[in-house]
Amino acid sequence: RLDLATRAFVAKHRAGTAPAEGIAVTPDGREVWVGLREEGVVRVLDGATGAPLATLPGFAVPDRIGMSPDGRRAVITDWICETVHVADVPARRLLGPVGGLAGAGAARILPDGRTVLVAMLEEGGVALADLESRRTLAYHTLGRRVDAAAWGPEP
Questions:
Q1: What is the sign, positive or negative, of the torsion defined by CA atoms of 71, 112, 41, 14?
Q2: In this structure, is the dihedral angle defined by the CA atoms of residues 97, 91, 63 and 76, taken in order, positive or negative?
Q3: Which of 62, 74, 86, 106 meets the CB 3.0–4.6 Å disulfide criterion with 35?
Q4: Cα 53 to Cα 25, 34, 73, 137, distances in angstroms
């Protein structure tokens, strides 16, 4: 845990074995969602104490996690299963996968809290998907490997 204002180390909390690149914090800072590669789970931790609050199973490798600006939804990419999962953050449960997004890398939920921008690693493009219907809306080819997704301007 870091204090970003002072750039100081605050505390170290153990989430589990082999945390993935996927770490997301709810907008209020109360929860930290961590993908654990070797365990195949996403662990939800208390943002202040690091205490485990919940475990979401069912992943091969939960690699990246994107959190919606309103804290209602999270997207979790599982690159071994080539799946993008949508989670209900307050309920701490999976809602289901987004169709048509095999090979996804990073995912960024847009300010509307409903649309997700997904980097398609090997396909060389980005996709837009609707989190409520969990279906792909559009795909844009960029012609090279894409491993990050962002939307601007940032608030």
A1: negative
A2: positive
A3: 62
A4: 14, 12, 17, 34
What is each CA distance from 70 to 9, 73, 77, 90, 112, in whole angstroms?
Answer: 27, 8, 19, 11, 9
Per-residue pLDDT band at 31 (split at 50, 70, 90)? very high
Q: Which two tokens stand for residue 71?
A: 């804290």
pTM for this model (two decimals): 0.86
Which residue's structure tokens are 């809290």? 113
CB atoms inside a 10 Å sphere around CB 42: 29
Q: What is the pLDDT of residue 105?
A: 78
Q: Which amino acid is at 4?
A: L
Query: Tokens 């109360």 identify what position?
Result: 30
DSSP of 36-97:
ETTTTEEEEEETTT--EEEEE---S-EEEEEE-TTSSEEEEEETTTTEEEEEETTTTEEEEE
The predicted-structure confidence for 52-99, as pLDDT tens digits, reads as follows 999 999 898 898 899 999 999 999 988 777 788 999 999 999 999 998
* Residue 40 contacts residue 58 (beta carbons within 8 Å): yes
